[in-house]
Amino acid sequence: MSTPLLDIRGLTRTFGGGRRWFGPDRAGVHAVQGINLDVARGDTLGIVGESGCGKSTLARLLVGLDTPSGGTIHYAGDDLQQLRAQDRHALARRIQYVFQDPLSSLNPRKRIRDILAAPLRYLRGLEGQALEYRLGELMEVVNLRPEFIARYPHEFSGGQAQRIGIARALAADPELLVLDEPVSALDVSIQAQVLQLLRRLKAEFDLTYLFISHDLSVVETISNRIAVMYFGRLIEQAPTRQLFHAPAHPYTRVLLDSAPIPGGPPIKAEEGEAELPDPLSPPPGCAFAPRCPRAQDDCRHTVPPLDNLVAGKDHLAACFHPIEGPWQRIATQSAQER
Amino acid sequence: MMTFITLIARNRLAAFGGVMLLLIVLLVLITPWLPLADPNITETANRLMPPLSDGHPLGTDALGRDILSRLLWGTRISLAVGVAASLVAALIGSMIGIVAGYFGGRTDNTLMRGIDMLMAFPYILLALAIVAVLGPGLMNALYAIAIVNIPFFARNIRGVTVGIAHREFIDAARLSGKGNLRILASEILPNVLPVIVITMSTTVGWMILETAGLSFLGLGAQPPQADLGSMLGEGRKMMLNAPHVATVPGLMIFLVVMSINLLGDGIRDALDPRLKSGALSRPAPFTRIRRRHKPLPDPTNDDALLSVENLQTDFEVGHDTYQAVNGVSFAIQPNECLGLVGESGSGKSVTALSLLGLVASPPGVITDGRVALAGRDLLDLPHGDIRRLRGRDVSYVFQDPLATLHPLFRVGDQLVEAIRQHQPMSRADARTRAVSLLGQVRIPNPAHRAEQYPHELSGGMRQRVGIAMALANDPQLIIADEPTTALDVTVQAQILALIQNLRREKGTAVLFITHDFGVVSQICDRVAVMYAGRIVEIGPTKTILETPRHPYTRRLIDCVPRLGEPDNEPVAIPGLPPAADALPEGCAFAERCDLAEDACRQGNIELIATDTDRQVRCIKPLGIPTPSPQGVTR
Ligand SMILES: Nc1ncnc2c1ncn2[C@@H]1O[C@H](COP(=O)(O)OP(=O)(O)O)[C@@H](O)[C@H]1O
Ligand code: SF4
Ligand code: SF4
Ligand SMILES: [Mg+2]
After folding, report:
1. Cα distance between the two ends of chain A
2. Which one of A269, B7, B370, B621 is least enclosed by Cβ atoms within 10 Å?
3. Each residue of B372-403: b (16+ CB within 10 Å) or e?
């Protein structure tokens, strides 16, 4: 196997905390903790998880908007932090980012022309004719009418604004796009348009995607691999079909069980508090143990490592008692709390 | 820019201030060319001449100098010094503010601690101390006034910058290869500039007054030079025998400061974005109702809990009319859950808010229709009766529970208030009921949670409290507007289960607004699909999901990715819904419909019954060979 495009080892980001003059040291919040992840060139890796589980922090670390507290990221064999230190623009030329909220990621006082010209000018050094030509090309690539380029962001609908966001990311000619909930703010009819566009662009420009979303069905349609995050850690990773066919981690099953499908079987609701643990005093062992129906004593002492379920098979889960067998929502159960 | 000027002009006081200031400024600008006596020539023979004397229209002062001439030259200097001081203060203060706000961390700490130190001294004492150190003189007074005003700018601008620096477009600019300096100059500055201008326009007047104050004390302009403050100071000594010497500059100070402040307030209001959007104009507590005629009750809805007939709600903004709700009719039976589905902007929320007159007026107006709760037309009721209905017979749950929860009160106290508003109950009893309500919505340890403030609860918990509030008075109908849209799927599952439970145990009816067909199929008995302010299809959930009759419903279902069917690629609907102020004739979906034909773009397309319990607004409903022609009016 060739070197992966992204090689992430032990990636950690802690916020706050630190030493105090009096009293014990303050505990930090581990937004992202010990993540190991490979992304192959040409992959679309979906990352799912609930709000606050560290998806966006991971994304920001990858594009260099934030710096890890520990661990390494290698991009095509080069250390990302060294790359950043050598050349401020090196990273932005290779990895770009698409924001969740299309409108707030566009400066309200700038025309689309200025927004798109910035990466062309500063990252690719284009000027004059070449710049104009490329601007026209970009608008065409994301299916926007050329005359829109003279408008201000507030004149666009959400879907159009997100196309501009995508065009801005593509302007630098990157190889990897980190898409942080790119369609969550859009209506379903517009969401389908943007997903279609993203698929086409990937084929056209040989892109690699890291697609973050809380919506399992969206991730399923677009990714070929999926990684599930919970409380700052990766807890399961597998090729999409494998993951949806036989999710092994109890949390993945909870997620699947609670997602409503149009015309589908009733969803199951968890009892008790379906919420993340307190980040300031995390439970000692598996973070999911307080909610887990399969939790045993060993779960509460040691953090389960992300391991291959069956040696040689490409399906990893961080659980001491993984669930086997295919997943099926029990049709007889109704969406009622018992 | 034109709108800005019209906004100022519309504000009479500001316009008055502007004109006055303009006159004063013009006058002092042309002063050097006016046939005036030299302001500094003393002529002891003519000392203290009263106004309207020969050659001295405003008289002379103690040294026989012409007061008119001194007044104009003095105003010139006072204005120049005041404006220069505020420019200096604005420049340095804003720079400190922007840098502190943008870089944050240690830079912010150091800079703002310095600013705090400046602010720790009483304002005027600090100015005096600075002049004392630098020595009296006009320039030094200028520096002193500028320095004491720097903190004001720095704090204001820092606050605004912090807000902007954390916006996503700053990150986007960084990823576009812009460095810090470029981001400060081309992304941050244009967005804080209006605030700088506002701050300046509201401080210039005071700064002129402060400079005059220093000169009055003899620390500013030095004799023989005149500025308004020093003239006032000199006049003070002969207040009794020659009052005009002090009155004339005093009046001028008053005029200058007043005109600048009036104009400044006008500028502030014109630049405030909240004003433009009308957010500061207080909406009426009830939506305006201007029905063209009163529809008669529809007898088929006799046993319905809620029946809505031909409801129309417009937003009138300037000369435009946005038809947000455009003839909506539906009925909800007791204990039924009706889903209202559609894309954003299709009019779901406005429909829901119109039912109890909660649409903000202005700009909202209900122009037609009937809303009957158990047979009573709510749009006809006196306001007092409607108010008693709200929260008692019908209650709302919103997407953002913070819309109904006050941030500064404990959730328990808010529940007690909600209960006692409609039920005569002692505080203690209401408290017991509040805690039991929190228990009913499955909040663990309800007695303890009742003591907490909304911000101490997670999003899911807050939404539970929002539902508990809605339940406080056992309403017959709950209107839930996207109550789970902002929640994670696992929490959503719990909230949906909770609503189902309530229906079963209390017989409550629910109008459930959502854009998610998955959620609809979980809890709604019937569903109404909205497009461009109208219901385009209504019927039982199961049959609509299985065999949609309206092309829009079909397409909308098809563009939802379905979990577990990755090969079933969602199919996009091309184009966008029409704007609410430019609805086309005929079918609003025609533009995006691949079955559209000429007949679709004409006349009014009615909602027709296709099956016993289903209706659809389309002349070529799917799966129906020949629709009944009498349903279509041309
Ligand atoms: N305060 C307002 N002023 C002007 N137009 C408004 C206002 N509020 C809503 N609208 C318009 O009314 C229409 C329906 O909005 P809404 O009911 O919020 O849609 P939905 O809830 O289906 O997303 C939209 O075209 C929207 O732009
Ligand atoms: S390790 Fe234990 S507690 Fe954690 S998910 Fe697996 S079974 Fe549940
Ligand atoms: S009326 Fe015509 S345009 Fe409208 S949905 Fe039906 S077929 Fe399409
Ligand atoms: Mg809405």
Report:
1. 50
2. B7
3. bbeeebbbebeeeebbebbbbbbbbbbbbbee
Residue B46 clears pLDDT 90, i.e. is over it: no
Residue A27 has pLDDT above 90, yes or no: no
Q: Does domain B48-276 have CATH number 1.10.3720.10?
A: yes
- Using a CB-CB distance cutoff of 8 angstroms, which residues of chain B are in contact with residue A109? 190-191
Are A29 and A17 spatial neighbours (Cβ–Cβ below 8 Å)? yes
Pocket test for ligand 2, best of A252, A270, A306, A321 (most atoms within 8 A of CB): A321
For residue B309, list its beta bridge partners: B370
Residue B372 and residue B306 in contact, taking contact as beta carbons nearer than 8 Å: yes
Amino acid sitting at position B291? R
Tokens 């796009």, located at residue: A177
Confidence of residue A332 (pLDDT cuts 50, 70, 90): very low
How far apart CA B396 and CA B501 sit, in angstroms, is: 17
pLDDT digit string, tens, across residues B415-465: 999 999 888 889 999 999 999 888 888 787 888 889 998 888 877 788 889
Residue A118 contacts B, CB cutoff 8 Å: yes
What's the rounded mean pLDDT across residues A160-166? 93
Does B560 lie at the interface with A, CB-CB under 8 angstroms?
A: yes
In sequence order, which residues have a C-beta less than 8 Å from that of residue A96 and are 6 or more positions away? A63, A169, A170, A172, A174, A176, A177, A178, B175
Angle at B278 between CA B273 and CA B281, to 5 degrees: 120
Between CA A161 and CA A108 the distance in angstroms is 11
- Pick B124 or A222 by higher pLDDT: A222
Q: For residues B62 and B53, what is the distance between their CA atoms, to the nearest angstrom?
A: 15
Transcribe B544-584 into DSSP letters. HHHS--SHHHHHHHHTS--TT-TTS---PPPS-PPPTTSPP
For the CA of B360, the closest atom of ligand 1 is 1
pLDDT, residue B119, reads 85
Residues B526-568 have pLDDT tens digits of 999 999 999 999 999 999 999 999 999 999 999 888 888 877 7
What does the pLDDT look like over A225-255, one tens digit per residue? Answer: 999 999 999 999 999 999 999 999 999 999 9
- Any idea where the domains of chain B sit in the sequence? 48-276, 283-393+475-562+571-577, 404-467
- Categorize the per-residue pLDDT at B337 as very low, low, confident or very high, splitting at 50, 70 and 90: very high
Secondary structure class of B16 (helix, strand, coil): helix
- Give the confidence band of B59 by pLDDT, cuts at 50, 70, 90: confident
- CA–centroid distance, B341 to ligand 4, in Å, is 10
Q: Which of A76, A294, A25, A115 is nearest to B170 (CA)?
A: A115
Q: Do B566 and A121 touch (CB under 8 A)?
A: no
Q: Is the complex ipTM higher than 0.90?
A: no
Partner-chain contact B489 A216, CB within 8 Å:
yes
Q: CB neighbours (10 Å) of residue A95?
A: 27
- Model's pTM, two decimal places? 0.84
Å between B280 CA and nearest CA of chain A: 21
Four-point Cα dihedral B5, B10, B13, B17, nearest 10? 20
CATH classification for the domain delimited by B283-393+475-562+571-577, as one of 3.40.640.10, 3.40.50.150, 3.30.9.10, 3.40.50.300? 3.40.50.300
**CA B273/CA B587 separation, integer angstroms:** 36
pLDDT exceeds cutoff 80 at B314: yes
Q: What pLDDT does A158 receive?
A: 86
Task: Please tell me if the CB atom of residue A319 comes closer than 6 angstroms to any atom of ligand 2.
Answer: yes
CA angle, residues B145, B149, B150, in degrees to nearest 5? 120
Q: What are phi and psi of B606, to 5 degrees?
A: -85, 160
Contact B570 A192 (CB under 8 A): yes
CB atoms within 10 A of CB A25: 9
